Amino acid sequence: MKRISFAAPTSGVYPYVIAVFAALLLLSNIGAVKLIEFGPIITDGGAFLFPLVYIAGDVISEVYGLKAARRAIFLAFGLSILASLTFWAVQSAPPADGWDNQGAFEAVLGFVPRIVLASVCGFLVGQLLNAYVLVKIKERTAERALWFRLIGSTVVGELADTLTFCTIAFYGVITGGDFLNYVITGYIYKTLLEVVLLPITYRVIALMKRIEPSYHREG
């Protein structure tokens, strides 16, 4: 096994990366409540930002390692649950006289147990697998073949995430070929988008490794 290096998450910009990671997740979860359709393609609003969650997760895993990645994942997971419970509490509170938007609030931000369960389970399973696969590949490739571990971890993590979320959230709601279309389209789109954004991911990771004083490259 080759020697590999990770930055210490106790200093540097690690807290800011976690903040971005969690923010992207929360925004994606809100967007995911809406199904959208472009011709024959059916997906949800989370498709706009959710691939960036995996890119941020890749950056954390590559630069800080598996333990730090798990810490970030569990923190974002907890914040996601907190956001859902907050929306549920606001939804359940009696609306003020003259405020006629209760139905609209519930339609967009209302607590839907099935969607919430799908979102948090998909995120947790997918991100943990993504981080694990990336770090395990890095143990064999060290600083080489970054593209391979980024794509390899994405293929595994996004598949687990997409299958978990789509099955829990919309199985039985979307049926037959439409459900299969939804799953396959979402998976291919998210995976291909991360491939397209590889040059940006490369630059972000390179920048992070340069500015983190505790990161030491090994050949």
What does this structure look like?
This protein has 219 residues and is mainly alpha-helical. The protein is 72% helix and 4% strand. The chain has 8 helices and 2 strands, in the order αββααααααα. It has helices spanning 14-31, 50-64, 66-92, 102-109, 113-141, 146-170, 176-196, 198-211; strands spanning 35-38, 41-44. A two-stranded antiparallel sheet has the order 1-2. The mean pLDDT is 86.
Short note summarizing the structure:
This protein is mainly alpha-helical and 219 residues long. The protein has helices at residues 14-31, 50-64, 66-92, 102-109, 113-141, 146-170, 176-196, 198-211; strands at residues 35-38, 41-44. The chain has 8 helices and 2 strands, in the order αββααααααα.
What brief labels describe this structure?
Arp2/3 complex 21 kDa subunit ARPC3; 219 residues; mainly alpha; two-stranded antiparallel sheet; 8 helices
List the helices and strands and how they pair.
Layout lengths: L13 H18 L3 E4 L2 E4 L5 H15 L1 H27 L9 H8 L3 H29 L4 H25 L5 H21 L1 H14 L8
Antiparallel strand pairs: 1-2
